[in-house]
Write a structure and sequence with these properties.
It is built from 20 helices and seven strands. By secondary structure, it is of the alpha/beta class. The chain has three domains: 84 residues, SRP54, nucleotide-binding domain (Four Helix Bundle (Hemerythrin (Met), subunit A)); 195 residues, Rossmann fold (3-Layer(aba) Sandwich), CATH 3.40.50; 138 residues, Signal recognition particle, SRP54 subunit, M-domain (434 Repressor (Amino-terminal Domain)). The chain has a seven-stranded mixed sheet with strand order 2-3-1-4-5-6-7, sandwiched between helices. Strand 4, helix 9 and strand 5 form a beta-alpha-beta unit. Helix 5 packs parallel to helix 6. The longest helix has 32 residues. 38% of the residues are buried.
Length: 443
Amino acid sequence: MFEKITDKISGSFKKLRGNNVISNENIQASLKEIRMSLLEADVNYKVVKSLVESIEEKAIGQEVTKSVSPSEQFIKIFNDELVNLLGEKTEPLNIKVTPPAVIMMAGLQGSGKTTTAAKLAKYLKEKEKRNPCLVSADIYRPAAIEQLKILSEQIKIPFIPNDSKNVVDICKSAHEHAYNNGFDTLIIDTAGRLQIDSSMIDELKSIKNKVTVHETILVIDSMIGQEAINVAKQFDEEVTIDGILLTKLDGDARGGAALSAKYVTGKPIKFYGFGEKLDMIDVFHPDRMASRILGMGDVVSLVEKASGAIDEKDAEKLTDKFKKNEFDFNDFKDAIKSMGKMGSLKSTLSMIPGLGKLSSDDEALKKANVELKRTVAIIDSMTKKERSDHGLLDGSRRRRIAKGSGTSVQDINSLVKKFLQMRKMSKNMGKFKKKSKNMLNFN
């Protein structure tokens, strides 16, 4: 996400290198590039004007300390203003209420509302330890009701069926069901339209009039750019939204919707979706998102993803094997599987500082994914003994493995070489740690 805007903004920082102070003269070229890159990214022109003026006001005339370069100081100013623009702080859902907390999902048809309702339910269950249930109030599209039912079965969260043709009755009945059966959260998936119309707005208002809705979340497809902000503004004026959830943010190379939403509507972005899988949803952290836009990665989110994907006991076991130099091909395969649980390679790389550009290189990503699949295929073609003891892999065994995995002997040789390098590194790390400890205890 944000590839285009990140590349251009990163280029503008280079213009400040070699200066001792950020002055009006040397900053104008950078600000011009920033202004153009934001407008090209479909960011609302009022947002661009406000952001650039704010950066200019805070940057001009600032003395540059010896330990910090002008470009680094400018990036710090830019980052702070970007965080302010995106919302300053993370805004949680208002669901710490007398159960059941009611979350109403609103949005246009095609925004990904139904799938997002299931994603949010899964997130609340697994991350927030809530006990949610789902109901569909989309009486116009039977396929939408069936879709939510199927999704709820996949994530093992109760779906409340109702054959009524009255939207308000469905929601009131679901609320009563949630209360009587001990559910602390009810998520309502409402009907969408291709565009905002009076019947949809009246329907949403009638639900809010008869059922206490604690969170009205507007689901927006970030791919529609500037139009997304117009939609958000209209929805808020008509039904009053509490927050925004941006879908398909992984496919938005420009970033216009994410950068404009909070400023134009005054309502926070609370969550964002970044892929098709049902666990690809996360809380929107303005500071982390600003860091990613500026090409500095998002290490905090990466660590959170890794800790959620990798079992603590498995991680300890793997660390112990590294220390004892007992790391084998079974562990190698497990490590690759854990990477898969963290999401797509593209989203993972985008969080690592310095590798953001690689995440936008489709050819490089394609090659990396092919390499990972080839590695798993090779390991799967080994016997249990061969996986545990690489020393058994003589010429004939390697030829058999190559044939079984649809690869070449050269591929097997390359993998074994990389594997041995990893073992050597882990062994040396252990020795280095031991030497360091002895040096510390020398006195």
